[in-house]
Write a sequence for this structure.
């Protein structure tokens, strides 16, 4: 069964009306034919005139008088008539009703002050405060005439309100065709309430299909009562589902792009796929073209692909220009592009799953220069996260393309994959691609045996991972790596706590095809020794054993807060009360030992090829306060099916604090380079605190404190405020010091402030803002402010963005009903 997308509205902005007119003028409007409907026969001067007939019968008030007739397809339908008075003219088969006239048929009805029903033709003439209700739509008119069998007819000085898209369509004269199709003379269309709408479209003639489109001829766009644009032809969506059309444009000015205009066009191909194309016009850079394809051909299959390409007028960047002034790189290419996409699908056998990722870019600056645009990095990441719950690599990392085929069983799984990493910092006037040392896994096979008992009667458990991959690189050591890691685990659980012991072995075989000297900066033998004459990477195998044991327990106590329980009454609905607090203390102790195995001659493909020796004890203690809370809510009674008050209990961690430190036995006995690096076996004390102070305020902070330097080496904290009525606020601060120790080296300091704010509303105004300040480099990293004015039927969004490499100003105009 095909999947479904959520609705994506479309926008036909004022600035593109003339462009649209040139594109679609003269084309026939698809989807329906317009049958001929007779013009009104009764004028205003004789609307209430008594027909020339003998012996009229005055019947007085009537209620629910049936009018039964046969439709064109020979179905019998019934309308019920109610009025203050009814007069019948039997010789000419005419019936007149006056005062609160109502004709009903199911959920549909016709209302008027006066009605004349022609029994021979089943036509009814209505006059005075005419109201027609059809489905969810309502029609108002001064007078009207309808064929009750086919519900076709005409209206004068009428207006239709379509509740789904919240759209008003009015005209001097309206013809209702078969189905839900109307023709309007001197029409006005708007989504605004009020007699003088903030904006509207007028037309000499309009053909409107309910839950479809309105086709306007000789149309103009009006602000209040003033025409501001004209087009000979215009298409207006009057539907709530996904629809083909122009999306909201992005236009403004940028310091690097000049004046820009980005116009997307959305094509709803079918219920489960669509295509978006956009043209991004930049005064200083040229035109960027983009295509985005989305499809959900089945419930368990999703496809997303996007490409952007351009011929950039700006070819070469100085290594001292803007944000890139320190990287020493240039960009000499005119042709620039970015391809990205993902696929998730199940094969005919649902146990098999297929995933594929594509991410390939033309140069090292593309993702930074086009970060927040419609075609930009941030939007693509959000789209992919929402579709696949996974996303792209960070902008400064190598671009990763891969495919993965997996098969799962109860205790095992296998995976076939290939991974290609693109180093976008090569080429374009920088180092040639022939010098690329990036490792490509082409292909790779993985198998996993999940942890489980070897013999059901014994608690001894086993788990195993196996991997074999061909490691290819253009420059440097290439070959195959085959690795298996079996692990035995013995869990012991008692009433006083748990102990888990494990022993594992990493067995690796290398099939080297081409060798080179170790040059990777992550090679531990280079980090610990500055000798440049490293041996060639020719070793064929390694065996690295590792053992560990961990123990933990928990002490807990519950404190009754002495609160009086809530009663289940309607007056208490929405009320809550804290009843108790549970305080738990969870100490944990873990010891890990990995043998010191010489790996200097092993090939280096990734950090897994250098398993550093380890003899370390890690000890921690965690405190958790959990609150118990009662709420009075409304629930449906299963017997009476009425909404009644009831108690609901919830639990929430009010406060959580973890303290952790490690002791490195190898560092305590080290004799190497002691004159340069003193022994420091005790690791930093790590603390992690999260507190929910109220329903609306939470605080988190993570800190590492050095017992040797007697200072914080890293600090990360944040305060969040969430008040649904007013908005959200988050303030965070990150700090990291420079460290030069034997086991870790960090030459740079970080001092970074982050502020994010969103106001729900302040009258018609709202605000979204973010601020990033780099105190280490004494510069503003990013400021983004969006000021939003929201009217009932339109919205203005003004955006100011400042980044190290670019300052830009945007203006968005959203006309509700034409898109948002």
């Amino acid at each position: 069964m095909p999947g479904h997308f959520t609705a994506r509205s479309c926008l036909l902005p004022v600035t593109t009306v003339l462009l649209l007119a040139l594109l679609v003028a003269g084309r026939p409007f698809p989807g329906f034919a317009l049958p001929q409907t007779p013009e009104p026969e009764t004028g205003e001067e004789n609307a209430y005139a008594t027909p020339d007939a003998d012996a009229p019968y005055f019947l007085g008030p009537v209620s629910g008088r049936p009018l039964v007739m046969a439709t064109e397809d020979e179905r019998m339908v019934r309308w019920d008539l109610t009025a203050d008075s009814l007069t019948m003219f039997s010789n000419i088969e005419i019936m007149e009703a006056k005062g609160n006239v109502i004709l009903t048929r199911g959920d549909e009805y016709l209302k008027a002050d006066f009605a004349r029903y022609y029994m021979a033709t089943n036509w009814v003439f209505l006059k005075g405060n005419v109201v027609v209700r059809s489905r969810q739509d309502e029609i108002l008119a001064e007078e009207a005439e309808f064929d009750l069998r086919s519900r076709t007819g005409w209206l004068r000085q009428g207006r239709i309100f379509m509740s789904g898209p919240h759209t008003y369509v009015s005209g001097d004269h309206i013809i209702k065709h078969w189905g839900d199709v109307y023709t309007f003379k001197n029409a006005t269309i708007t989504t605004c309430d009020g007699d003088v709408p903030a904006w509207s479209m007028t037309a000499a003639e309009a053909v409107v299909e309910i839950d479809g489109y309105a086709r306007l001829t000789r149309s103009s766009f009006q602000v209040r009562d003033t025409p501001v644009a004209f087009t000979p032809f215009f298409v207006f969506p009057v539907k709530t589902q996904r629809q083909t059309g122009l999306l909201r444009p992005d236009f403004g000015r940028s310091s690097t792009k000049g004046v820009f205009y980005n116009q997307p066009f959305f094509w709803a191909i079918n219920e489960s796929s669509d295509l978006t194309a956009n043209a991004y016009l930049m005064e200083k850079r040229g035109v960027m073209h983009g295509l985005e394809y989305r499809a959900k051909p089945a419930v368990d299959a999703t496809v997303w692909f996007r490409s952007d390409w351009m011929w950039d007028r700006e070819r070469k960047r100085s290594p001292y220009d803007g944000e890139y002034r320190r990287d020493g790189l240039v960009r000499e290419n005119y042709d620039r592009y970015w391809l990205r996409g993902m696929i998730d699908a199940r094969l005919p056998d649902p146990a098999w799953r297929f995933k594929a990722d594509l991410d390939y870019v033309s140069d090292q600056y593309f993702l930074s220069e086009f970060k927040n645009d419609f075609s930009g990095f941030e939007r693509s990441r959000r789209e992919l996260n929402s579709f696949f719950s996974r996303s792209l690599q960070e902008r400064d990392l190598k671009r990763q393309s891969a495919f993965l085929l997996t098969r799962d069983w109860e205790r095992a799984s296998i995976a076939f994959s290939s991974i290609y990493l693109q180093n976008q910092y090569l080429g374009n006037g920088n180092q040639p691609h022939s010098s690329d040392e990036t490792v490509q896994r082409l292909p790779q096979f993985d198998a996993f045996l999940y942890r489980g008992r070897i013999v059901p009667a014994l608690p001894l458990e086993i788990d195993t991972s196996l991997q074999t991959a061909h490691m290819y690189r253009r420059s440097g050591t290439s070959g195959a790596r085959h690795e298996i890691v079996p692990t035995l685990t013995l869990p012991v659980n008692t009433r006083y706590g748990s102990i888990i012991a494990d022993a594992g072995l990493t067995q690796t075989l290398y099939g080297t095809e081409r060798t080179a000297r170790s040059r990777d900066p992550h090679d531990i033998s280079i980090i610990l020794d500055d000798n440049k004459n490293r041996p060639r990477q020719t070793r064929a195998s390694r065996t690295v054993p590792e053992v560990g044991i961990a123990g933990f327990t928990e002490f807990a106590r519950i404190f009754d807060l002495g609160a009086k329980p809530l009663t289940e009454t309607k007056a208490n609905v929405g009320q809550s009360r804290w009843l108790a607090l549970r305080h738990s203390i969870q100490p944990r102790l873990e010891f890990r030992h990995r043998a010191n195995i010489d790996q200097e001659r092993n090939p280096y493909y990734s950090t897994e090829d250098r398993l550093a020796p380890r003899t370390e004890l890690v000890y921690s203690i965690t405190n958790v306060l959990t609150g118990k809370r009662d709420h009075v809510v409304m629930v449906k009674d299963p017997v009476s099916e009425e909404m009644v008050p009831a108690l609901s209990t919830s639990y929430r961690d009010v406060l959580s604090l973890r303290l952790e430190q490690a002791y490195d036995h190898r560092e305590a006995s080290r004799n190497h380079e002691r004159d340069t690096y003193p022994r420091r076996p005790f690791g930093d004390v790590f603390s992690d605190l999260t507190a929910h102070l109220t329903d609306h305020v939470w605080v988190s902070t993570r800190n590492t404190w050095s017992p040797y330097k007697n200072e914080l080496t890293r600090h990360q904290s944040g305060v969040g405020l969430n008040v649904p009525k007013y908005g959200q606020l988050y303030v965070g601060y990150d700090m990291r010091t420079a460290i030069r120790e034997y086991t870790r080296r960090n030459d740079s300091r970080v001092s970074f402030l982050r502020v994010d704010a969103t106001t729900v509303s302040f009258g018609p105004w709202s605000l979204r803002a973010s601020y990033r300040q780099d105190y280490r480099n004494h510069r503003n990293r990013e400021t983004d402010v969006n000021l939003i004015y929201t009217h009932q039927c339109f919205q203005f969004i003004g955006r100011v963005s400042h980044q190290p490499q670019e300052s830009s100003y945007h203006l968005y105009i959203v006309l509700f009903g034409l898109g948002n």
